[in-house]
Specification:
- The protein contains three helices and eight strands, in the order αβααβββββββ.
- The strands form three sheets. A three-stranded antiparallel sheet has the order 1-3-2.
- Helix 1 packs across helix 2.
- It is elongated.
């Protein structure tokens, strides 16, 4: 294994510093997507930083509460922790389509207290979870999240 030359030093980039610069130069106060952050860093720095370095630096900054994030599609939108994001423009963020695996709307329950919600109760189901929607005398209705798709089932009660 060759030894490094005597005067040579390895330059190390500070990814977090470049991420903060990219977020500060953001034109939109709604934050930036990870792909936008990577391209902005490449423009500001003059060379690309490896994707893994950017992702791990963003996770570290999120854990240290330097930035905040919200999921948008398959990516995350990041903004500086002190500022609040405004609503993203419709051009950059199309309206989300209703996916069948996102939420299940259960039948409204009979109000037992005067402070009960007026509308239907919405349950978010994580993969592998099940929710009992209705227990009748002859059947039980359930909703199960199987690999991201909600499956509504009606089971017969044993006699």
């Amino acid at each position: 294994m060759p030894r490094p030359k005597k005067g040579a030093t390895r330059t190390r980039h500070d990814t977090r510093k470049w991420i903060l610069k990219a977020l500060e130069t953001s034109k939109d106060s709604g934050g930036m997507l990870t792909s936008e952050i990577k391209s902005t860093i490449a423009k500001l720095r003059g060379s690309r930083i490896p994707d893994f370095s950017v992702y791990s630096a963003l996770r570290t900054m999120l854990r240290r509460k330097m930035v905040s994030a919200r999921r948008q599609g398959r990516e995350f939108r990041f903004w500086l922790a002190g500022s609040t994001p405004s609503a993203p423009s419709p051009k950059s963020n199309p309206a989300p389509s209703a996916s069948p695996g996102a939420a299940v709307v259960a039948a409204p329950a009979a109000p037992t207290t005067p402070a009960a919600p007026a509308g239907p109760v919405v349950h978010k189901i994580a993969p592998g979870e099940a929710v009992i929607l209705h227990v009748g005398t002859s059947h039980v209705e359930t909703a199960t999240n199987v690999h991201g798709k909600v499956v509504l089932e009606r089971h017969r009660r044993p006699s």
